[in-house]
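dude i think i finally got it to work??
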Amino acid sequence: MLEKTVAATEEEVVPGPRDDASSGNDEVEQELENYGRYRAGRDDLIRRADANGLSEARIARLMGHSRNTIRKALGRA
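look at this
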């Protein structure tokens, strides 16, 4: 069986270690942006729950956050 060896031409780009690290950074940055959007929505939800009469302790328990986190989102810290 004959095997062909294909060499990369000048037009092809073969990613090196630096390109892989850059790709990893892009993924991390995307995750951070997603978290920022999530957090903004989270704080809106906390404010809505507070406006509907839920206590800080109840909101914290339902969301799995500390009461301090809830207070900070409500601007009471």
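The chain has a mean pLDDT of 83.
im so relieved honestly
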